[in-house]
Amino acid sequence: MHVQVISSVNEAQADRFTHRTAIVIDVLRAASTIVAALQAGASGIYSVETVLEARALQRPSDLLAGERFCRKIPGFDLGNSPDEFTSEAVMGRRIILTTTTGTRALHKAARADHLLAGSLLNAAACSRAALELRRDIVLLCSGSHDEFALEDGLCAGAIVANLQAGSPSGLEMDDFAAAMLSLYNNASGRIYETLAASATGKRLIKLGMSRDVRHCAQLDSSEIIPRMQGDMIVRG
């Protein structure tokens, strides 16, 4: 089994996902929010790229959620903070989500045979699911502002570590995957501190969202595996 890691959505090309399992990573915060929403009982999540598309898809019972430049979109029901997605708010509801980068990355990976959403919260669970699907694996780090984001690389490394541990026959990886594995091995005891020191983490903390950073740093706290089924992300 071969694993490759793509550094940011800007580096993603559609043909790199064909006949593979893709795990789209956006630790701060889209993938973490998707995990939280499904954990809280949301029926599914539509990932869209624009605010206009989100509004056009909305049905009376749907919730609009998302952010631009880390802030909740005006007029939307929810932002992009995992703690907003409580069972009281989302149980049984369909969510239409648009974010600055994470939802773009999900669309970039749409040609994959299987598409999962990964974060630190569900890194081990995502790894197990990907191994069971028996395809070569592509990890797409969403990044921030079309550039590599440290927190996504850290999560990619955690997933690679789990894939390696679960592959008795051996795992082939590209150079960037090997680099992210080294990053994770060096920082695995300082997950929150690494997120807080990242450019995105610093931005969120400055905006008063340190609670989001702490939430997203909870390694392997969830068994939820968000999986694309048709056009909707559901609990896999």
TrEMBL record:
Gene3D superfamilies: ComB-like. Its EC number is 3.1.3.71. Its cofactor is Mg(2+). It catalyses: (2R)-O-phospho-3-sulfolactate + H2O = (2R)-3-sulfolactate + phosphate. Keywords: Hydrolase, Magnesium. Belongs to the ComB family. This is Probable 2-phosphosulfolactate phosphatase. It comes from Paenibacillus sepulcri. The lineage of its organism: Bacteria, Bacillati, Bacillota, Bacilli, Bacillales. The gene is comB.
